[in-house]
Amino acid sequence: MTVSSRKDIEILKNIFGFDKYLPHQEKIILSILDNKNVLTVMPTGSGKSLLYQLPALLFDGLTLVISPLISLMKDQVDELNQLGIEARSLNSSHSPAENNNTINLIKNNKLKILYIAPERLLQPRTFNIFKQIKISLMAIDEAHCVSHWGHDFREEYLELGQIKPDLNMNFPILALTATADSRTKTEMVDKLFLSDTPIIIEGGYDRPNIYLSFMPKQKAKNQILSFINKHQNSNGIIYCSSRKKTVELANFLLDNGHNNVLPYHAGLSNQDRLNAHEIFKNQDDTIITATTAFGMGIDKPNVRFVCHLDMPSNIESYYQEIGRAGRDGLPADTLTIYGMDDIILRGNQIESKDSDQENKRLEFQRLNALISLCDAIRCRRQVLLNYFNENIEKCNNCDICIDGIDLIDGTVDAQKILSAIKRTGERFGSNHIINILIGNETENIVKFNHDRLPTFGAGNNLTTPEWRSIIRQLYSAGHIKMEIEKYGALKITSSGNEILYKRLEFLKREKDIISPSKKKITKEKTQLEQNLYEDLESKVIFDELKNYRTDKSKEKKVPPYVIFQDKTIIELSNFKPTHLSKLHKINGLGTARVEQYGEDIIKIITENSSSENQNLFQTNTHTEDEYENHELQWSAKNDLELEYLYLEKKLTINKLSKKFNSNDAVIRGRLKRLDLM
Prior knowledge:
- The chain is α/β, with parallel strands linked by helices.
- It has 4 domains: 3-202, 3-Layer(aba) Sandwich (Rossmann fold), CATH 3.40.50; 210-397, P-loop containing nucleotide triphosphate hydrolases (Rossmann fold, 3-Layer(aba) Sandwich), CATH 3.40.50.300; 407-509, Winged helix-like DNA-binding domain superfamily/Winged helix DNA-binding domain (Arc Repressor Mutant, subunit A, Orthogonal Bundle); 532-673, DNA polymerase, domain 1.
- 47% of the residues lie in helices and 11% in strands.
- The protein contains 32 helices and 18 strands.
- The strands form 4 sheets. It has a 7-stranded parallel beta sheet, sandwiched between helices. Strands 8, 9, 10, 11, 12, 13 and 14 form a 7-stranded parallel beta sheet that branches. It has a two-stranded antiparallel ribbon with strand order 15-18.
- β3, α5 and β4 (113-116) form a beta-alpha-beta unit.
- α18 (411-423) packs across α19.
- It is globular.
C-alpha cells in the first residue's frame, strides 16, 4: 500500500489537520493497526493522544481510554467533539441521566472513543456492559501508575492487565507514559500485559523547546519576580515546597503588579481547587503558585514558563513538572531556585517515609541526581538526559550553554571548609561551619570552644553566600556528604580527603548566577518574536484571532486551546491565507474546524491584511501547482544557505523572503520541507 493510499494519512490531514506524523507516531500507530501491543515512553508534548485517537477512527468497535483524572477526560472529549469525533466520558462529574445516555450510545455502537477511570471500569455493573460490545483498542494513559515507583500510585491500575482475558476479546493494548525508569518499565510490562509481551517504543526524553536555568537562593521571591516580569501576559506555574509558601508567593506577586495569580494546594476546599483549575484552564495570562498537588491533569498547551521556588523532590519530579511548559512546541522557559536548606528538607522527607532502606536508597539516588543538575558545570540538558540514559550534543538552550560558566581554582577555600569539618568531628551542619570560617561567635561556637580553632575566622575573605555556594558545590561533586538523620551533619568523603591533603585540585564557579542574564533575555525575546509574528500586520491578525478564539471558547464553554492552539494562530497570522481552500495547509485545521470557523478566520485575515500581502494564497492569483513549481526552483545551494541564515543567524521569515527575492509562504514551505520548522 502506498503512502498516498493509506487511510491513516488521510485522517491525519483531514480530521486532525496535520501534514505529517511526529517522530515515532507512525510506527506506533501502524503497530496498533496491526493488532500489536505497545508500551510507549514519550515526553509530554510529543503527541501521545493521537496514538489512540487516530486508530480509533479506523477500527469498527469502541476504543477504551483508561485515564486517571476527570479533568483530562473532559479536555480531550471537548477537543474530539470539536473535530466531529463521537467521544464521551463515563465518570462521577456527569449526572446519572448523562451517564445513562453515554451507556446507550455505547450499546448502540454510536461511540468511537470512551474515556473512563480504572475504578469505574472495574465496577461489575460497568464491566458487564463491555462484555456485550466490541472493544477494538484499550489505551492506558499515565501507565506508570501501575508501579509503586510511579508518581501517582493507583491500586486499580494493577488489575488492568486482567481486563483483556476477562472480556475474552482480541484487541491491542497501548500503554502510555511520559517518564519511567527501568524498574517502572518492567512493572508496566509484567502487570499490564501479563504474558502478552508488548513492543516497547521510547521516544526519548528531550524537550528542546524548553529553556533550562537554575539559580542559588538569594531572596527567592524577588528572584521569581524578576523572572516573571519578563514573561508578561503569559501562562505559568510556580511550584513551592509548602502550602504556606504558595499563598505567600501569590500575595507577593499580586502586590507587585501581577493580577491573575492564584494559589493551589491540597489544604484548599475541593471547590476552591476546582475554581483555580478552571480559571487556569480557561483563561490566558494566568499564574498558579502551587504545591505538587497541581500535577497530573494539567494539559494546557500554552504554559510559557514553569518555576520552582524551592528545589523539587527528585529529578523525575523535576522532569515531569517542567514538562507542563511548552506542550505546543513553542519556546518555554524554566527557572529552579535551590539551596542547602532544600537539600536538607528533601532528605528529611525521604528519611521520614515509612519504607524500607532499599526504597530510601533509591530515593536518595534520585535526589542526588537532581543536586548534580543544580550545580552542573556543563550543558544542563546533557546532565538531565544522561540520567535517562540519553546522550545529546550541547543543547544551546540552557543557562550554561548560553552564558557559559567560568571555573577557577577553589582548592584553598575547599580545604578551609574540609578542615573545619574535620576539626569539629564531622558533627555539624553547613551553617555552623560557615560561622566558624567567617568568625561569628555564636552561642554554639562558644559553647563547643570552636572560636579557638585555627580555622576560626580563616574565611573572612568571602561572604556567607559565597561559602554556602562552595559547600553546595563540594556536596554535588561528591567531596562531602550529609547525614540527614543527624541534622545535616557534614562528612568528608574519600575524594574530599584527597583535596584536604593536597592530592586533588578543586575547581569552583567564579560566580554564582543569582539573576537572569542579559544574554538570556535577548535570546528569549528574539525566539518568541520570531515564533509569534513577523511584522506589525501579523501581530494585529494574531491578536484578533486570539480574541476570536476567546469569544468562541466562552460560547462553547470549552478552553480556548480546544478551539485551536497558539501554533495554529501563529501560522494563520504569518501565512495570511485568504481563501478557504488554503486553510487546510495550516497545522491543526482539519475539515471540521475549517467548516466551523473557516469563513470567520478568512474575514479576520482579509480585514486586517494589506493588499500586497494577499498574493500567494488567493486562488485567483496563484494555483497550487504554481506554488509547488516555485518551490522546486530551489537548488541544494539555496537550501544550505537558507538553513544557515535561519538557524545560525536567526533571520525572520520576512527577512529571508527579501534575501532570496521570494515571499513568506515559499520560504516557510522550504523550511518545512527541510524539517526546520
